[in-house]
Amino acid sequence: MANFIPKIVYTPILGGSDVTITFTYPPEKDPFSETQALIVKTTRSSNGTKQTQYNYKMEQFEMKFKLVSKTIMDLVRTFIVDHAARGGSFKYYIHSDVASYNTYDYVKNSFSINRTITDRAGDFFYDFKFQMERVV
Fold first, then answer.
1. Is residue 43 part of a domain?
2. What pTM value is reported for the model?
3. DSSP single-letter state for residue 86
């Protein structure tokens, strides 16, 4: 059953067993609102003819969550700093209760965190976003 609650599974670059981050609710935006970028190279031959070479298509998503607990925020921060920012790819499941996934890479310099309100115990909730991409 599709629940639109995503999860990320990765094997740490620094070693260890698989880590799973399952979010508690869907991201803020439509989970299928990807950006498609065509990667092409255009050149001109010596006689002036324009030549276009289609290389591949890049699909990008922006993950944006609001009011995330400190526990999940710590898992996401560790995932970004110790794995994704170092070039490690990861499995992204749009639905945490479905077995299908796509493999993505982190778009560097796209991670931002904001502390918002506190809960009754004095812990903050967090808003964060980052981008991920894959070659289609």
1. no
2. 0.80
3. G
